[in-house]
Amino acid sequence: MSVWSASTVGNNHHYGHPTSRYSYSNNWCPNLVKHKCVMGETPIQSGDALHTPAYLSWRKLQLSRAKLKASSKTSALLSGFAMVAMVEVQLNPPNQTKVPPGMLVAFTVCTTLLVAVHMLALMISTCILPNIEAVGNLHSISLVHESPHERLHWYIEIAWAFSTLLGLILFLVEIAILCWVKFYDLSETAAWSACVVLIPVMIVFLAFAIHFYMSLATHKYEVTVTGIKELELLKEQIELGDHDSRMNNLTLLDQNRVV
Questions:
Q1: Predicted TM-score (pTM) above 0.70
Q2: Model confidence pLDDT, tens digit, residues 136-193
Q3: Cβ contacts of 100 within 8 Å, gap of 6 or more
Q4: What is the dihedral of CA 200, 161, 51, 38, to 10 degrees?
Q5: How many CB atoms within 10 Å of residue 112?
Q6: What is the CA radius of gyration of the chain?
């Protein structure tokens, strides 16, 4: 417990107002993050409250905030690399190069798509993240409904997919095309070696992405099934309790009739 918290409790006890877990102090803490003090409701920590809709929405808020942060950082980094590669690459005149024109077109299209995809993900993250951060930094579950993460769920998923899946695939393709354009005039073997190395890397990347999303879907399914089973068990307990109460009432009525 911090010094501020100890002094507050002491002052409340001194003036005849003992603290309890159901009472809230009107005192203001100058450092909310350090002392974990909130002028309102604090994040729920009890076991029964972890299954409330508000706490579930709070978990979704934290996940959406983490996705948007990772998406914005990844998109800004990879789009910057793509722009630098496009600007710094040195191309020979058409009459002095052996690079196929189709490869130059592919390089231009891939670079444009790479930058556009990451810029779209960065724009979505930049627009949505401040609104989620404003609510998340309050550390109050009662205000979770003010966050737009539920309404803008699909935009968050699009930004996440563009930044981590489509954007990374385009970046790997960009590396192969750039090696081809850069080294084809010097050595065709070097250009082909880039493609040969990239093929197994792309296969491993796609295999990991598919395995990750399947594992994540399986985990969510198991969590959902567990929650449904808990609800069914709770329903049975409630029905059993109602049946017992009815039997008790009938027993009391029979006793009153006998009397």
A1: no
A2: 888 877 777 878 878 888 999 899 889 888 888 999 899 888 888 888 888 888 888 8
A3: none
A4: 120
A5: 13
A6: 30
Whole-angstrom distance between the N-terminal and C-terminal Cα of the chain?
A: 61
Joined together, the tokens standing for residue 25 give 């102090």
Residue 157: Cβ within 10 Å count: 13
The residue type of 256 is: N
Q: Is 71 exposed, middle or buried (0-12, 13-18, 19+ CB in 10 A)?
A: buried
| C-alpha count within 13 angstroms, C-beta hemisphere, residue 212 | 9
Cα separations in angstroms, 27 against 3, 4, 17, 43? 14, 10, 13, 18
Report how far apart, in Å, the C-alpha atoms of 84 and of each of 77, 81, 89, 110, 111 are.
11, 5, 8, 14, 10
**In the 3-class helix/strand/coil scheme, how is 93-142 assigned residue by residue?**
CHHHCCCCHHHHHHHHHHHHHHHHHHHHHHHHHHHHHHHHHHHHCCCCHH
Cα separation, 53 vs 226, in Å, equals 16
Cβ contact 50:44 at 8 Å? yes
Burial class (CB in 10 A: 0-12, 13-18, 19+), 132: buried
For 114, what's the count of Cα atoms within 13 Å in the CB-facing half-sphere? 28
Q: Which of 171, 175, 62 is nearest to 116 (CA)?
A: 171
Cβ pair 15, 9 in contact under 8 A: no
Q: Which residue has 């401040």 as its token pair? A: 130
